[in-house]
């Protein structure tokens, strides 16, 4: 080796001078230092030319390739601090390693180039290192860089093995599961994925031989449901006939209900006298509607009458099937437009065959139908004893204003005792007779005009 010049020891001092505050320099000092720097650069170039072995002429892009390889190697391995001078013991160890490894390869040459560049950077300070970094960035950003990636360069020995292993590691194999957590699928996405899998499976299924195809066809034929028998046809026809009859009964019930609410009670009595089956049909449809209610008003009235003496005489206006008379012990007079029970007296409820002041309780349970409700209440006032009880239960949707209804009833000789508006389907009122009606027959009572209870077509 050669003796180290004095400037090699003073190089760190020169590198550390960047942090010192700038002082005013003379032109002579700056010229002297500039000439010294040029001399140092010239000596460094001469040393590099003497130390490097003779190499064949390289291609124009080889320097750039070497620099890229240096950058890649620096990223892969930790950086080492290279000093300007090395001891002879270190040199001996390096020679032994080279002898064991064999003839010097291109990797060792590249390492020497890298070491000398680092040595040059240590000598020249931070300016040279920053310039080198800037060059490397420009080369990476330039798309027309003639340098090729390391994977395409012919590699030998351990370097080629490492690169191939790295490439194999980076390529995810289809057999190994992915390390990322699986993305959660919605129900619809999962179904679509299963459907696509089945399609792919059927797409690549091998064609079956004719024998197996005949067997599968026979199995499919056996899975077909048997042909319907004549008995099943008859049952179907019977069910269809019953369904059509039910629809027809519903339509007739809606028609009769509309007639009862839109005309006077005398017209309704005449209708049922001409067609006795119409009343049976109407009563059946009415009961099917009331069964859906959580509580039937006739049961509520019967429960109230159970608390009173059994000697009270009751008059049931619009009794229907005489359910109230069957639920209480009191003597009951049952009146309706048609008879479904032997206890029923067929008549117009505006004119019942009872004497004046002959009953204790008068009941109108969902029977204030027609346009002459005033006549019904006046007839109840006539047959009730003084202080007698009038009980009215009616569908809640018929009342536009409950207060006006109560006011109109009080003008007919009654006073309100209690009212129950808590039920969602019907309202219940209790009145007491105070005397004869206080208004004449020609007086208008608008509160007695209730809305008709019409059922919608379903």
Spatial strand arrangement across the major sheet: 3-2-1-4-5-7-6
Number of helices: 16
Low-confidence parts? 7-22, 55-62, 79-85, 143-179, 220-225
What is the average of the pLDDT values?
74
Distance between the termini: 112 Å
Strand tally is 7
Overall geometry comes to elongated
Q: What is the C-alpha radius of gyration, as a whole number of Å?
A: 56 Å
Strand content: 5-15%
H/E element sequence: HHHHHHHHHHHHHEHEEEHEHEE
Helix amount: 40-55%
Largest pleated sheet: 7 strands, mixed
What class do helices, strands and sheet pairing give?
Answer: alpha/beta
Features:
458 residues; alpha/beta; seven-stranded mixed β-sheet
Describe the structure.
- The protein is an alpha/beta fold and 458 residues long.
- The protein contains 16 helices and seven strands.
- It has helices at 6-15, 27-51, 62-76, 88-101, 106-124, 126-141, 157-170, 187-203, 210-223, 230-262, 265-274, 276-290, 297-306, 323-327, 373-383, 402-410; strands at residues 314-317, 332-336, 344-346, 359-365, 384-395, 414-420, 426-433.
- Strands 3-2-1-4-5-7-6 form a seven-stranded mixed β-sheet, with helices on both faces.
- α5 (106-124) crosses α6 (126-141) and α10 (230-262) packs across α12 (276-290).
- The longest helix is centred in the middle third of the chain and has 33 residues, at 230-262.
């Amino acid at each position: 080796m050669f003796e180290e010049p004095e400037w090699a020891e003073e190089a760190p001092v020169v590198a550390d001078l960047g942090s010192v505050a700038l002082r005013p320099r003379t032109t002579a000092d700056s010229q002297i230092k500039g000439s010294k720097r040029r001399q140092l650069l010239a000596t460094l170039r001469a040393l590099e030319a003497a130390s490097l072995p003779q190499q064949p002429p390289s291609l124009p892009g080889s320097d750039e390739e070497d620099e890229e390889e240096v950058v890649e190697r620096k990223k892969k391995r930790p950086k080492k601090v290279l000093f300007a001078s090395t001891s002879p013991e270190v040199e001996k160890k390096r020679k032994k390693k080279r002898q064991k490894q064999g003839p010097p390869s291109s990797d060792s040459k590249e390492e020497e180039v890298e070491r000398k560049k680092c040595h040059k950077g240590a000598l020249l300070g931070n300016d040279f290192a920053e310039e080198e970094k800037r060059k490397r960035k420009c080369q990476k950003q330039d798309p027309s860089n003639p340098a090729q990636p390391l994977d395409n360069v012919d590699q030998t020995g351990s370097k080629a093995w490492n690169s191939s292993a790295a490439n194999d590691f980076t390529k995810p194999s289809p057999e190994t599961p992915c390390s990322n957590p699986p993305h959660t699928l919605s129900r619809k996405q999962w179904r679509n994925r299963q459907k696509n899998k089945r399609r792919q499976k059927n797409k690549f299924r091998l064609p079956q031989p004719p024998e197996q195809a005949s067997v599968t066809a026979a199995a499919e034929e056996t899975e077909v449901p048997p042909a319907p028998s004549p008995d099943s046809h008859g049952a179907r026809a019977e069910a269809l006939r019953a369904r059509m009859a039910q629809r027809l009964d519903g339509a007739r019930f809606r028609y009769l209900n509309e007639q009862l609410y839109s005309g006077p009670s005398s017209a309704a009595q005449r209708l049922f006298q001409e067609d006795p089956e119409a009343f049976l049909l109407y009563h059946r449809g009415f009961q099917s509607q009331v069964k859906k209610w959580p509580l039937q008003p006739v049961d509520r009235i019967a429960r109230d009458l159970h608390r009173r003496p059994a000697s009270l005489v009751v008059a049931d206006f619009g009794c229907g099937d005489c359910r109230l008379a069957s639920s209480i012990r009191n003597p009951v007079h049952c009146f309706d437009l048609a008879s479904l029970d032997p206890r029923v007296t067929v008549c117009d409820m505006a004119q019942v065959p009872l004497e004046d002041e002959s009953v204790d309780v008068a009941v109108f349970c969902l029977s204030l139908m027609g346009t002459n409700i005033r006549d019904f209440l006046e007839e109840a006032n006539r047959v009730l004893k003084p202080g007698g009880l009038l009980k009215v239960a009616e569908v809640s949707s018929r009342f536009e204003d409950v207060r006006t209804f109560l006011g109109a009833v009080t003008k007919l000789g009654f006073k309100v005792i209690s009212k129950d508006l808590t039920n969602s389907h019907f309202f219940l009122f209790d009145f007491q007779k105070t005397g004869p009606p206080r208004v004449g027959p020609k007086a208008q009572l608008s509160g007695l005009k209730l809305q008709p209870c019409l059922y919608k077509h379903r």
